[in-house]
Design goal:
The structure is a homodimer.
Chain A: H1 6-15, H2 21-29, E1 46-47, H3 56-63, H4 67-115, H5 119-143, H6 153-161, E2 163-164, H7 171-186, H8 194-208, H9 229-248, H10 251-262, H11 268-292, H12 322-354, H13 358-378, E3 386-387, E4 414-415, H14 417-422, H15 426-434, H16 444-462, H17 471-489, H18 497-513, H19 517-527, H20 533-548, H21 554-562, E5 591-592, E6 594-596, H22 597-606, E7 611-616, E8 625-631, H23 632-641, H24 655-658, H25 683-686, E9 689-691, E10 702-704, H26 709-719, E11 723-727, E12 738-741, H27 747-753, H28 757-764, H29 771-780, H30 788-792
Parallel strand pairs in A: 5-7, 10-11
Antiparallel strand pairs in A: 1-2, 3-4, 6-9, 7-8, 11-12
Chain lengths: 802, 802
């Protein structure tokens, strides 16, 4: 009974024992799987269905639609993208505005006290305000929406791959994410706002598409076409692009980020739609920043559309600078993979503590806040005061919020270089590090202290229960490391230290996040220096290559920690040794074209499968034939509406009168969908029959049982399936041999069934680092290094209907 | 006999009559199809096979490979990308260098004569040199490689979709493309070099991957892993990215162009590889341009890495400028679609003339050259001379090659504004139009004359038999139209006329080529003005939207003209009315697992299919079962090696000793592959048997016969298939019901079989402009507006093996 839809029953496998030893063996092989670790309780994870459900009922419904309804659909889809752009642009701007004002006000007050040499009072104000902001952020996160913790990028990425973690797109999560992110970033924690903005964008997109849901009492008929996974996926992709566009004011970078990192399925048409969305973001941001130039936005207003402008008339660099850039790339790659490694370990430790309850989550957040405040206030005292340069382009020491020359504890006419970096908002610190003509401003020891503090603070701050991103901390850490390398090279390089800082950021981003084109464009849009492009490309390539030799992309690591059953685009080599029949397990649950109600109720209650093959047998056809696949949700709708027949005979067109297309629309989120347990049926009704034909998807994708698992996985992923039917090659058997779901392709599942496989693989070949390249290689020239003998023993595992 | 591989037999259907009336009916429905029109003879077009052929022989071969061979593969793949980058970078630079020097020298000589007021001599030199260059370019194109005519982008795009037009990637074509493009661009024809550079890049990539081919006597063992369609597709994608990167010095734009416009299959890993390739291009270009700064490159050397720099300290534009931008976008969209419409008509006319033979092709090219020379020399006389501004930043009138103030026929102290645009290389004209602080330099009438000349010249120049691109003419035309709009707005807009020109170029590019993200990044990399980004995004979106209402992308139009069977990513709505069994036609040709040689020879000689299902029947198995699919190429190899059995019994492992993996590698190009007619077999051998099992792909993709055509097409395209097996749902029939190939999914084919479909479609819905959006819509909520009755009549068309 656990043949199909295994991903869905995983949540259960932890809370109650399963019926069959076979299933037990499978679930025990990845017991940590399918459980969101950070900031969430144990909960089941649903798969999404991107396949087109072509059944007679929906086809008939389609035929009845008019021209104007098609126009409605087209218009609404563009309108929704436009609205996503506008809303995300506004949220991004508000976020920026509030952070700059809250954090700015804090620094102004503290700096004024420092000027008056009231150091203890300054520390008290600084640490108390940080503590209060962090406490508030973590309280709302823990109590209202634990799903809002962290960056949200892994969740959105998994969603776009077809994994629906519950609650990630609720209104609750959206509000907590926005408010929590503003508070947490303002509280001088070492976290960024880009990740939360991506989640916010995706959330806005998902919510706008389902505004009509009854839960919020805002039903709008025009939105009914968007209540399916395919359209929602498109909107969420656009939303995540808008998120990066708003966070970094980088519209093109946002689109590329969504396509390179987030999306699992690409289409040119979707690229255009995402571009439209981010264009809306860009125009909103441009207009609002224009408005702020007149000084109506408080402490916000210094930054234009380019966040960290490093333009210079001519960047001159020559062949001699290439070794420095290569060195930056190599070290950036090593540091980046080390960063990922440490973050993984820290998150695992946090997870143990977080598992103890809400109080411990809040305690961790608060202690990190106090620790950060102490560090930020204490470290600048280590740096010695430096005399102001006589030719400084801005007032020295700076009185006020930003600026390169923080006075801190220094006497008049002097400044504290470490305080300029540390006792500042992250954005201003990056701006200082990227700035040109500041080569002599910072001392080596200050930069080193700053780098070390950044590196570890950002690792320890990410996992706490507040919305937090990784981009800005990584940029900051990378910039300080880049400047340090620049200082080592000194006058031997033509590049100024600001450009070294930019390249350092690029290298650490490449080493940690492993993107290429999108990072390149984002950095370009952040710094507005196109002439640097060849060097940025070089440094990104090197750091990614070096880092890939050690471990994976940071988001993939977090996704694995959270246990999302993510389908990789490459195929594990051992999958070529197996046929699909080797992984299909358990007895298969089938329905007949005309099925007894009690059978359906029994099957729905005793299994958690979400799709069932429908076959027609001799009374209805000459031989048993496969008719199609019916979904659990549609069966429940049928039972709920009680469209029953007194005896098993075909109804024909009657069924269409009893239903509207709305009955079969997907409900907004997991909690809303109907449960089989909620449906009451009388004994009489249980003895009646249902005609499943009009509601069965008559065009399911299929593979023959001798198909290699690797090729079935390619089909499954490329077409975006939830269920894949396995049909027998021998033609006089039952017309369907099994069902494959996402879970059946997970490496843990496959290796659980065939534990000898990896050893055989390792005996012949190096798997670890070459894995990706190797699987490409084996695609080019097919592999099967194991024996088929191993596989043949499992053929008996599945048989016809029973 | 014409069931499968129909695309391949199409060439034939024109030159000799087919056997079956059924086939005849099908081919007559699209007789113009599959024939490259521009610059090529009638020739058959092959499909490419991106599926992984998993047969026992190749699996065994793979198992025998060592660790070091995997390293070889990985290393070689990166090395090839690197080499592609270096070579394409060098070619791009050489191209630029030669064009600037040849065309520059021509203008210097002519200008000097004009200075000396020898007008007729100047005209003679100008037109003669243009004529000679065009004649040479068109001679080598027509005589040596007709495939090199045109931009080559449609051919490469079709290749990446799976259509192999013969000869497009030969060494001949590469040389003609490079030399022809240099000559044609230098000859002041109104054509660009970007399109030919894309083809050049793709060609370099395809050739580097097959350097080992015996034809060129350079066999290298390490390259043997790349002799398959999948790896070649990846390399060609990288090559086309490198082409744009080299032509526009736009590495990121190149990658995006390859992915948005060219590629039909995207993968994140491939994105990274393409990025690596274009990074190599960028570094080569940067180094060479650095070298040229010292003045060693003749007349080349003024342009840096940014071709048309329009940086300014602060671009200030406000809400009031948006209407102007929207107007630019709307008119750009209308102009762009009109451009596509005219180009289509002109190409059809040229095609009729070109069909008359080589002489007529050369005559057209020559007459266009003469006409262009007359126009370029004659038009500036229409403009009145203007007095030099007193505050000009450069010498006026310009003495020498480039510069804004061409003297032409004017008296000293005056300049001819039209000549500054017309009597110049295209690049310099664009630079003049984009330049700031030149608002008063050009007269409205000059800009209008220039715009009209550009628009029509570029349309008439594209189709002649020389390598020619569309990008630069469109940019130039767009820039002049943008400046004209800028003049109309005058002081009511904050934007200077140079920025109007940039936006005008963007709008015409968007209206003609319909790209978004890639055009945006290319324009950014060309002009280095990031602050303009929101406006460029806006103008691109509007122009694309407006133009899409009228007709398609220019490259798609040319592809249709050339008759490439391109698989669109969207599904035609009427395909949902049909099942796959409705389009499978003709008797199916099957082989048995152990087949008689004479049967194989007979089938191979009488059909042109490229894939055959292999089944095992009762003597070998209990019931008939589907074993897999065998390719024609592999069958021919088997026959050639004469690995025959005296009687029909299984051989087991013996076959592996007789073959090496190299025997089954795909040959470089169409002409090289072995033909069945070349194989001599004795009568005795004809009576022997072959064991096909080890060479049969045992994991073919399959669909059941009741699958809707639309969903089968999605599978076919997403997975990149050449053959798709159709299997019956009723289980006691033959195990295979038919084969689908690319041709079976072509709208012409489907409509040929079911001529009533479009009428039924139109009755219910508007198809024309809403088509794309509608098919998306119908994916979200499935459609079937026709009747199934129509389809059912065709079920008898195919039956079991015979």
């Amino acid at each position: 009974m656990s043949n199909n839809a295994a991903a869905e029953e995983e949540g259960d496998s932890v809370t109650r024992p399963l019926l069959l030893p076979l299933s037990l063996r499978r679930s025990s092989s990845n017991a940590t799987s399918q459980l969101a670790i950070v900031g969430s309780n144990l909960c089941p994870i649903e798969s999404l269905d991107y396949e087109i459900i072509e059944n007679d009922f929906l086809k008939q419904d389609w035929r009845s639609r008019s021209k104007s309804q098609i126009c409605q659909y087209i218009f609404m889809k563009w309108m929704l993208c436009f609205l996503i752009g506008i809303v995300v642009g506004l949220i991004g701007f508000t976020n920026n505005l509030l952070v700059e004002n809250i954090a700015g006000m804090k620094f102004v007050v503290t700096s004024n006290m420092m000027l008056a040499r009231k150091f203890w009072a300054a520390f008290f104000v600084f640490s108390t305000s940080n503590f209060a902001l962090t406490l508030f952020a973590s309280l709302i996160t823990v109590l209202i929406s634990p799903e809002a913790a962290g960056s949200g990028i892994p969740e959105v990425k998994a969603y776009l791959n077809g994994v629906d973690a519950p609650g990630i797109f609720s209104l609750r999560t959206l509000v907590v994410k926005i408010v929590g992110s503003i508070c947490a970033v303002s509280s001088s924690l070492h976290i960024g706002k880009a990740g939360p903005m991506v989640h916010t964008g995706a959330c806005v997109a998902a919510l706008l598409g389902q505004v009509g849901s009854k839960k919020y009492g805002l039903t709008w008929r025009w939105l009914r076409y968007f209540k399916n996974d395919r359209d929602r996926r498109d909107l969420v992709t656009c939303g995540s692009a808008a998120g990066i566009a708003a966070a970094f004011r980088a519209p093109v970078g946002g689109v590329l980020f969504a396509f390179e990192e987030m999306a699992s399925w690409w289409r040119s048409a979707l690229l255009w739609r995402a571009f439209f969305t981010t264009a809306a973001v860009a125009i909103v941001l441009r207009a609002l920043i224009d408005f702020c130039y007149s000084g109506k936005c408080g402490l916000f207003g210094t930054g234009g559309l380019i966040m960290f402008d490093v333009t210079s008339e001519s960047v001159s660099y020559h062949l001699g600078d290439v070794p420095a850039v290569i060195l930056l790339g190599v070290i950036g790659g090593i540091l980046g993979s080390f960063y990922n490694f440490l973050l993984d370990k820290v998150l695992r430790i946090y997870n143990l503590v977080n598992g103890k309850g809400r109080i411990s989550k809040i305690l961790i957040a608060c202690s990190i806040s106090i620790f950060t405040s102490c560090l930020l206030f204490g470290l600048p005292w280590l740096a010695s005061c430096q005399a102001c340069p006589t030719d400084a382009s801005e007032p020295c020491p700076t009185i006020g919020r930003s600026g390169n020359y923080k006075k801190f504890q220094c006497p008049p006419g002097h400044y504290n270089d470490l305080a300029s970096l540390i006792f500042n908002t992250n954005d201003d610190a990056i701006r200082n590090l990227f700035s040109k003509n500041t080569d002599s401003e910072f001392h080596v020891s200050s930069i080193l202290i700053f780098f070390t503090a950044c590196f570890f603070l950002s690792i320890f701050s990410y996992g706490i229960a507040v919305p937090s991103g990784l981009f800005v901390p990584v940029i900051l850490t990378g910039a300080s490391y880049g400047r340090f390398i620049g200082m080592l090279f000194g006058s031997r390089s033509n590049l100024n230290h600001g450009l070294f800082a930019v390249l350092g950021s690029a290298s650490l981003l490449g080493g940690s996040m492993r993107m290429t084109v999108s990072l390149c464009v984002i950095i370009l849009e952040l710094t507005n220096n196109l002439l640097l492009l060849p060097l940025i490309m070089l440094v990104l390539l090197i750091s990614k290559t070096v880092a890939d030799a050690f471990n994976g992309n940071i988001y993939d690591i977090i996704m694995r920690l959270k246990g999302f059953p993510y389908l990789e685009s490459h195929v594990e080599p051992y999958m070529r040794q197996l046929t699909v029949s080797d992984v299909v397990t358990g007895p298969l649950q089938l329905f007949h074209g005309i099925e007894k109600v009690s059978n359906i109720v029994h099957v729905l209650k005793t299994t958690r499968h979400n799709g069932f093959p429908v076959i027609d047998e001799p009374p209805l056809s000459e031989t048993p034939i496969l008719f199609g696949l019916i979904l659990r949700a549609h069966l429940i709708t049928l039972l709920k509406k009680k469209a029953f027949l007194p005896n098993p005979m075909t109804t024909g067109i009657d069924a269409f009168d009893q239903f509207t297309a709305g009955d079969f629309q997907k409900k907004g989120s997991l909690g809303n969908s109907d449960k089989i347990e909620d449906i009451d049926l009388s004994q009489e009704e249980m003895e009646m029959f249902v005609d499943l034909h009009p509601f069965t998807n008559a065009s399911p994708y299929t593979v023959v049982e001798t198909m290699s698992l690797a090729k079935a996985l390619i089909l499954f992923r490329e077409v975006g399936l939830r269920h894949l039917l396995v049909i027998p090659t021998i033609s006089n058997r039952s017309p369907v041999a099994g069902i494959l779901t996402r879970h059946d392709f997970m490496p843990e599942h496959v290796l659980g069934l065939h534990p000898l496989l990896p050893k055989m693989a390792k005996a012949g070949l190096v798997v670890c680092n070459f894995r990706l390249a190797w699987s490409r290689f084996s695609q080019a020239t097919p592999s099967q290094f194991g024996t088929r003998l191993l596989a043949s023993g499992h053929h008996a595992d599945f048989s016809g209907p029973n």
